[in-house]
């Protein structure tokens, strides 16, 4: 994919209309190199792959086969998520908003989360969010993350499920067992009557 | 010392064969054959077969 050129916001006629703080930042980290639009050349491909993966992999049934079975665990800790894909950047140019591993050591982000948030809020106010590098504070990241995690209610996010009560989780299998038993009931009663109403009965149930 | 005499009757559990988990408790003489009868199961709202189940499932 050819690198997109970051577009200046419509209401701001030029970069000079932006507040000084933003201008300083953009001077140090020019959007042509660092902005989110430029730095994520492979994201569309990635997201396509991710969505394909999601479409092919079926969501497991929340019901467990019986009362003693354990429910399956949710997403793994280190699992790949769309929000993580948003923060992928090339290693040659370090993103000032993200920690960076260099010479075998981790470097802290040049701009801390609070400064990032301030810059992002300023940029959003002036409609220049697209000029900033990928950040945890960007609207896109926050929206993706919210979709993943759900509305802060456990189990409502993408790929999550509500655990529910045990009687809910085992309901499917229990109803199935009951249905099968009722299907065989007339035959069972016939046999029982045939064997003298229990006189010759051998298969007594266990308690 | 002599063992304590066993009671003449025992309480038994009759389990619904509809696999609803519903059961009835009845009292029968110890020497009697195991109980089995058609009874109403309120879970499926039908008369079904109830069979006696004892601990360990040992019936004569």
UniProtKB/TrEMBL annotation, chain A:
<dbReference type="GO" id="GO:0003735">
    <property type="term" value="F:structural constituent of ribosome"/>
</dbReference>
<feature type="domain" description="Large ribosomal subunit protein mL59">
    <location>
        <begin position="21"/>
        <end position="194"/>
    </location>
</feature>
<protein>
    <recommendedName>
        <fullName>Large ribosomal subunit protein mL59 domain-containing protein</fullName>
    </recommendedName>
</protein>
<dbReference type="InterPro" id="IPR040922">
    <property type="entry name" value="Ribosomal_mL59_dom"/>
</dbReference>
<feature type="region of interest" description="Disordered">
    <location>
        <begin position="48"/>
        <end position="77"/>
    </location>
</feature>
<dbReference type="GO" id="GO:0005762">
    <property type="term" value="C:mitochondrial large ribosomal subunit"/>
</dbReference>
<dbReference type="Pfam" id="PF18126">
    <property type="entry name" value="Mitoc_mL59"/>
</dbReference>
<dbReference type="InterPro" id="IPR037507">
    <property type="entry name" value="Ribosomal_mL59"/>
</dbReference>
UniProtKB/TrEMBL annotation, chain B:
<keyword id="KW-0687">Ribonucleoprotein</keyword>
<dbReference type="InterPro" id="IPR011332">
    <property type="entry name" value="Ribosomal_zn-bd"/>
</dbReference>
<protein>
    <recommendedName>
        <fullName>Large ribosomal subunit protein bL33m</fullName>
    </recommendedName>
</protein>
<dbReference type="GO" id="GO:0005739">
    <property type="term" value="C:mitochondrion"/>
</dbReference>
<dbReference type="GO" id="GO:0003735">
    <property type="term" value="F:structural constituent of ribosome"/>
</dbReference>
<dbReference type="GO" id="GO:1990904">
    <property type="term" value="C:ribonucleoprotein complex"/>
</dbReference>
<dbReference type="Pfam" id="PF00471">
    <property type="entry name" value="Ribosomal_L33"/>
</dbReference>
<dbReference type="GO" id="GO:0006412">
    <property type="term" value="P:translation"/>
</dbReference>
<dbReference type="GO" id="GO:0005840">
    <property type="term" value="C:ribosome"/>
</dbReference>
<keyword id="KW-0689">Ribosomal protein</keyword>
<dbReference type="InterPro" id="IPR038584">
    <property type="entry name" value="Ribosomal_bL33_sf"/>
</dbReference>
<dbReference type="InterPro" id="IPR052008">
    <property type="entry name" value="Mitoribosomal_protein_bL33"/>
</dbReference>
<comment type="similarity">
    <text>Belongs to the bacterial ribosomal protein bL33 family.</text>
</comment>
<dbReference type="InterPro" id="IPR001705">
    <property type="entry name" value="Ribosomal_bL33"/>
</dbReference>
<keyword id="KW-0496">Mitochondrion</keyword>
